[in-house]
Design a protein that fits this description.
By secondary structure, this protein is an alpha/beta fold. It has nine helices and seven strands; from the N terminus they run βααααβαββαβαβαβα. Helices cover 43% and strands 21% of the residues. A seven-stranded mixed sheet has the order 4-3-2-1-5-6-7, sandwiched between helices.
Length: 199
């Protein structure tokens, strides 16, 4: 039994925080897990900026409503789901992911939750589990699944390295340079072929 585990942002949809940084005119919010490996540190940094500018969930959701999946992403996902089980494992939040899942045809996603005050201020975040991507892949393996994994950022490396086959997709030059042992692809066609070969 095989499950393919995919990252969401940067792989299937554009980075939400980068889109919001551009929409809000706050360049500091462009920092992502490609730049900061420590996710908790990154989120604390983001929440402090949101508080400083008096921005909440509503403003971010307005930006997300305008985000479409990357070109070819839904077709890639549809084909992959016809070949094997697919789970999107993301460090994003249910409050961000829902409209994007609709546009992708409602694939299964495991992600985290934001803590939001009645005013709409994002006061904190609840991670599903420690090192969620690696932990999830190991849990799937412990119940008899083989995993194939793909992602673009530092927080994807654990699940990629722990899987039967793992691939970088649309990653940074720095991550590719640091991990020359990981095959790196730029197109869905290349990634699909690599996954099929690994099955």
């Amino acid at each position: 039994m095989l499950i393919t585990c995919l990252d969401l942002e940067g792989v299937l949809v554009p980075e939400i925080w980068i889109a919001f940084a551009e929409a809000s005119g706050i360049p500091e919010l462009k920092k992502t897990t490609r730049d900061e490996p420590d996710y908790n540190k990154l989120m604390e940094y983001r929440l402090a900026i949101l508080k400083e500018h008096n921005l909440g969930l509503k403003e971010i959701q307005e930006t997300i409503a305008k985000i479409d999946p990357m070109e070819g992403a839904k077709e890639f996902l549809d084909e992959l789901r016809s070949l094997c089980q697919v789970i999107i494992i993301s460090d994003t939040f249910t409050q961000f992911a829902a409209p994007l899942m609709k546009k992708l045809g409602y694939p299964t996603i495991f992600c985290n939750t934001l803590e939001v005050a009645e005013s709409g201020e994002i006061t904190g975040f609840k991670m599903r589990c420690e090192k969620s991507k690696l932990t999830t892949v190991k849990a799937l393996q412990s119940i008899g699944f083989e995993t194939i994994a793909s992602g673009d950022s530092y927080n994807d490396l654990g699940m990629i390295q722990a899987s039967k086959a793992g691939f970088l997709f649309k990653s940074t030059e720095q991550i590719k340079k640091d991990h020359p042992e990981l095959p790196a692809y730029e197109t869905y066609e290349e990634l699909m072929q690599a996954i099929k070969n690994a099955m």
